[in-house]
């Protein structure tokens, strides 16, 4: 059986703000829709669900994020995920220039949780809170260029 990762889905409170953040980092919107009806109830397992969605793709074409903002039922606000909690954790991106990516993130009010770390001679990386409290890891591979 062949398998490949299709996308990572993230529920957000403000779809436009999330799209702005991720497109400013370099992703591209490849589709948008509003979904509801029996097929979504069956697929998602949530009666009466109705959501606005956007599919974004990384520049290399290999990674996709599906962002969705629920219209119905009303979205449930939860505390943002902590780095050590069990469950969906974070979305991670490799970037060519971490400092530039952090400047972009800062324009959206997003800053590192603590700072930028260096992992051996392999990566400079950081975690930050993106839109809707999403944990986002940005990593710049060292020694490339």
From TrEMBL:
* Matching Pfam families: Glyoxalase (PF00903)
Q: Which GO terms describe its molecular function?
A: metal ion binding; methylmalonyl-CoA epimerase activity
Reply yes or no: does the keyword Metal-binding apply.
yes
Keywords on this record? Metal-binding
Domain (VOC) spans: 4-141
GO biological processes: L-methylmalonyl-CoA metabolic process
In terms of PROSITE patterns, this protein maps to: VOC
Q: Does the keyword Repeat apply?
A: no
Q: Which InterPro entries match?
A: Glyas_Bleomycin-R_OHBP_Dase (IPR029068), Glyas_Fos-R_dOase_dom (IPR004360), MMCE/EMCE_epimerase (IPR051785), VOC_core (IPR037523)
UniProt xrefs under CDD domains = VOC_like (cd08353)
PANTHER family in alphabetical order: BLR5325 PROTEIN (PTHR43048:SF5), METHYLMALONYL-COA EPIMERASE (PTHR43048)
The protein in question is named VOC family protein
Lineage, highest ranks first: Bacteria, Bacillati, Actinomycetota, Actinomycetes, Kitasatosporales
């Amino acid at each position: 059986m062949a398998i490949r990762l299709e996308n990572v889905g993230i529920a957000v409170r403000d779809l436009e703000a999330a799209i702005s953040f991720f497109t400013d980092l370099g992703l591209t919107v490849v589709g948008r829709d509003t979904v509801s009806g029996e097929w979504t109830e069956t697929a998602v397992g949530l009666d009466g669900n109705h959501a606005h969605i956007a599919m974004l793709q990384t520049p290399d074409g290999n990674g996709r994020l599906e962002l969705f903002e629920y219209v119905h039922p009303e979205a449930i606000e939860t505390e943002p995920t902590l780095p050590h909690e069990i469950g969906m954790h974070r979305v991670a991106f490799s970037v060519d220039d971490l400092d530039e990516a952090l400047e972009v993130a800062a324009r959206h009010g997003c800053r590192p949780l603590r700072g930028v770390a260096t992992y051996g001679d392999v990566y400079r990386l950081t975690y930050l809170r993106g839109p809707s409290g999403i944990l986002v890891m940005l990593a710049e591979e060292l020694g490339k260029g």
